[in-house]
Amino acid sequence: MRAVVTRVSSASVTVDGQVIGQIGTGFLVLLGVGPNDTEQDALRLADKICLCRVFEDENGKMNRNLAAVGGELLVVSQFTLYADLKSRRPGFSHAAKPDLAVPLYERFMQACRELGFSVEHGEFGADMQVESVNDGPVTLVFDTEKM
Prior knowledge:
The chain has a single domain, classed as D-tyrosyl-trna(Tyr) Deacylase, Chain: A (3-Layer(bba) Sandwich). It is 20% helix and 39% strand. It contains two helices and eight strands, in the order βββαβββαββ. Strand 4 and strand 5 form a beta hairpin. It is globular, with a radius of gyration of 15 Å. The protein starts with a strand and ends with a strand.
């Protein structure tokens, strides 16, 4: 699984003109699922992201995690994180098919909720408009193949 995580002061996702997910302080998580990903990958990634200490403490150091700041997550499916960019037109054959990707996307969000976090989300496979106010900016890339 791959995730691009941005620390935000707010973020939202809109489908067909309607806001379907919205958060304040927290993480905007763009989540991609690969064909070899498993439930263990979803659990490991949720733990890694939710416990990541990138919020500033009283000394201005990145030392607080999501729980310490009362943060939330907005999770948006992003199959393009598995794009093959060898040519000028990206190929997407390296992304998991929906029958695997959807359950792992859902399992990742469930794992974040089980860790005690509020999770909003986009709509898998929909044309979405995502807005965010990046804080920092702080943006991190997670890949379960490299963790």
